[in-house]
Amino acid sequence: MATQRLFFALELPDTLQQQLVQWRADCFPAEAGTPVAAANLHLTLAFLGDVSDTTAARLQQLAARITQPAFTLDLDDAGHWPRPGVVWLGCQRAPRGLLQLADLLRAQAARHGCAQSAQPFHPHITLLRHATEQVALPPRQFHWRCDIQHFALLASVFRQGRTRYQAVARWPLRAASGV
Ligand code: 2AM
């Protein structure tokens, strides 16, 4: 049976990806970890894993019905998780819209057999991987604002020694029509 490795995510505008890559290069020495490629910077909403085309199609139908107004992401927090070896960027206060969207997608995924982590959802953008040694974090003097207008289903594709994330589908964030 054909499967794809999929996850729902927020994509970042190209300009923000470039700004983050520049800031990361200024803040973290090369030995801190493996940088995630600019085009791969994203915020995962719900990880699905390897799913069949049937399950993927069903989850896409459900995603298309979601009504959730657009929101603004304030990227003003960073941290280091030594165990998975991740340095991340996130929000001191995650917007309610983001949490609601992630909760819904994670619940729909779980109902369709995509096991969800028991850990509480901590929205983050992974900046560095393989960061298992101690990492000095930059002072919290950064703050990027980003208007999020859509969410996406991304496929993780490993080819020629590199992982790329390809958009399978995108949906606009929109308020319920009220009818
Ligand atoms: P991470 O960046 O914090 O590692 C694609 O792999 C995306 O799904 C990554 O952003 C990754 O988060 C996230 N993800 C969540 N759970 C995962 C899992 N069990 N395996 C791989 N990726 C996972």
Automatic annotation (TrEMBL):
Keywords: Hydrolase
SUPFAM superfamilies noted in UniProt: LigT-like (SSF55144)
Reaction catalysed by this enzyme: a 3'-end 2',3'-cyclophospho-ribonucleotide-RNA + H2O = a 3'-end 2'-phospho-ribonucleotide-RNA + H(+)
HXTX 2 (motif): residue ranges: 124-127
Active site: 42 (proton donor), 124 (proton acceptor)
GO molecular function: 2',3'-cyclic-nucleotide 3'-phosphodiesterase activity; RNA 2',3'-cyclic 3'-phosphodiesterase activity
Family: Belongs to the 2H phosphoesterase superfamily. ThpR family.
Name assigned to this protein: RNA 2',3'-cyclic phosphodiesterase
